[in-house]
């Protein structure tokens, strides 16, 4: 396709090898929910179960030493992937786990009455609910950056929302509904000018383009392995080392302490270990490392360019359909959010599923955004580098027959 053709990578994905849904070849357009897994990742996980099962960083066996080394090496891979130091990579259960750790370990500790958490109305629940709780418990307040008419966050709007009360600016690098990229470097500079820290919910950004923590001045970044071709159950909180050192862990237990005594005196280990109490999802973390290597081998720039070209193609074709309204025609990423005239989003989703197309409908966990869009819900096709123009054509053909009668027919 066009300038970059990544279809050669389809062969790496067993789910793309002849799988059908409802009697049609599967068209997987639900990548913002979770991505498919390439053979390299599946083999890494299988290898752990078949040949390398052991706990890590606890055992005296040669096997434990071997797997512990691989497990620690994933920190180096992730550090290369997002441009930071390995000890700044904290393993978590995913983006939600990372955001809760941040809210608990930083928000609860450093915020108090009179402080402001600056965010947007298009955030995923996982980047709002933990902060609501911080506000409830500390007396801090949430403030929302006004979005442009299109639904974008701009540097100007961030600047006009800043004052000395703002202690944290936290927002999605890419909105999971509208697919817009936030101007992260500029926002980091503005936040720092006011002495605030800048936390990026990278769940929809990290899998799709290159981010460099040092160059962009990002203080915290959270993301999930399963949205970047890795296994579920694993993820990362990146934090600038000085900030991680000041933060409290959300969990306490084995592995995170250097020692403790019967009187309750606890000496925690250094970062990042102090945050990783208990056995972590070892196979998930090994698989996440394999996924990051796989994406870097393809090249994040190529992934980004290919997705943009593919989404532009899909939007152009959708705009030819009189019954389809696209809400984010100019977004930079593979998320295309739309509605079919007169068809309830969930009914459209079910109808498209009956035609072999997997996507998502509803509010996409961003439950304040519908007020902004002035619709109760939307349908979201989210593309990744293994999707093709032909699959976009399949969606277009299905949308042509997506009427209220046909959508309801499938339930009868
Ligand atoms: C923007 C954004 N943030 C956070 C999350 C939460 O990710 P997870 O469910 O993997 O923890 C999602 C998931 O869809 C998301 O899209």
- Molecules bound to protein: pyridoxal-5'-phosphate
Rg from C-alpha positions? Answer: 22 Å
CATH superfamily of the largest domain: Type I PLP-dependent aspartate aminotransferase-like (Major domain)
Number of domains: 2
Q: How does CATH name the architecture of the largest domain?
A: 3-Layer(aba) Sandwich
Average pLDDT figure? 95
What percentage of residues falls in helices of 4 or more residues?
Answer: 25-40%
- First-last Cα distance: 40 Å
> Low-confidence runs (pLDDT<50, min 5 residues)?
none
Q: Number of helix segments?
A: 14
The shape, in one word, is globular
Strand order of the largest sheet: 4-10-9-8-7-5-6
Task: Furnish the topology, listing elements before pairings.
Layout: E1 20-21, E2 24-25, E3 27-28, H1 39-51, H2 62-82, E4 89-92, H3 95-110, E5 116-119, H4 129-138, E6 141-144, H5 155-161, E7 166-172, H6 184-193, E8 197-201, H7 213-216, E9 220-224, E10 235-239, H8 241-246, E11 257-260, E12 266-268, H9 282-298, H10 300-318, E13 324-326, E14 335-340, H11 345-354, E15 357-358, E16 360-362, H12 369-373, E17 378-382, H13 389-400, H14 404-409
Parallel strand pairs: 3-15, 5-6, 5-7, 7-8, 8-9
Antiparallel strand pairs: 1-2, 4-10, 9-10, 11-12, 13-14, 14-17, 16-17
Helix pairs in contact: 1-9, 2-9, 3-4, 10-13
């Amino acid at each position: 396709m066009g300038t970059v053709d990544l279809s050669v990578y389809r062969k790496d994905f067993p789910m793309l090898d002849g799988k059908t849904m409802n009697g049609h070849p599967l068209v997987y357009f639900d990548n913002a929910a979770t991505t498919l897994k390439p053979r390299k990742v599946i083999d890494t996980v299988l290898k752990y179960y078949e040949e390398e099962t052991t706990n890590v960083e606890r055992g005296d066996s040669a096997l434990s030493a071997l797997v512990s080394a691989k497990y620690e090496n994933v920190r180096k891979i992730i550090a290369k992937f997002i441009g930071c130091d390995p000890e700044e990579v904290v393993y978590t259960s995913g983006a939600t786990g990372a955001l809760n750790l941040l809210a608990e370990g930083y928000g609860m500790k450093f915020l108090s009455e009179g402080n402001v958490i600056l965010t947007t109305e298009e955030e995923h629940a996982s980047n709002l609910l933990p902060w609501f709780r911080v506000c409830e418990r500390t007396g801090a307040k949430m403030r929302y950056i006004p979005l442009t008419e299109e639904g974008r966050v701009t540097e100007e709007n961030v600047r006009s929302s800043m004052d000395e009360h703002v202690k944290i600016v936290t927002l999605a690098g890419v909105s999971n509904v509208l697919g817009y990229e936030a101007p992260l470097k500029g926002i980091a500079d503005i936040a720092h000018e006011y002495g605030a820290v800048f936390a990026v919910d990278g769940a929809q950004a990290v899998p799709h383009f290159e981010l460099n923590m040092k160059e962009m001045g990002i203080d915290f970044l959270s993301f999930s392995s399963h949205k970047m071709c890795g296994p579920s159950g694993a993820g990362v909180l990146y934090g600038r080392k000085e900030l991680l050192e000041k933060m409290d862990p959300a969990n306490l237990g084995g592995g995170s302490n250097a020692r403790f005594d019967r009187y309750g005196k606890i000496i925690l280990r250094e970062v990042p270990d102090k945050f990783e109490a208990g056995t972590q999802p070892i196979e998930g973390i090994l698989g996440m490392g394999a996924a990051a290597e796989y994406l870097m081998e393809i090249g994040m720039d190529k992934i980004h360019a290919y997705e943009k070209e593919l989404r532009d193609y899909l939007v152009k074709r959708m705009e030819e359909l009189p019954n389809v309204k696209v809400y984010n025609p100019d977004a930079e990423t593979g998320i295309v959010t739309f509605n079919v005239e007169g068809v309830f989003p969930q009914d459209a989703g079910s109808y498209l599923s009956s035609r072999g197309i997997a996507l998502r409908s509803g509010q996409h966990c961003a439950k304040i955004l519908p007020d902004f869009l002035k619709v109760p819900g939307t349908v979201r096709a989210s593309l990744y580098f293994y999707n093709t123009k032909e699959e976009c054509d399949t969606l277009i053909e299905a949308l042509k027959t997506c009427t209220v009668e046909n959508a309801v027919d499938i339930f009868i």
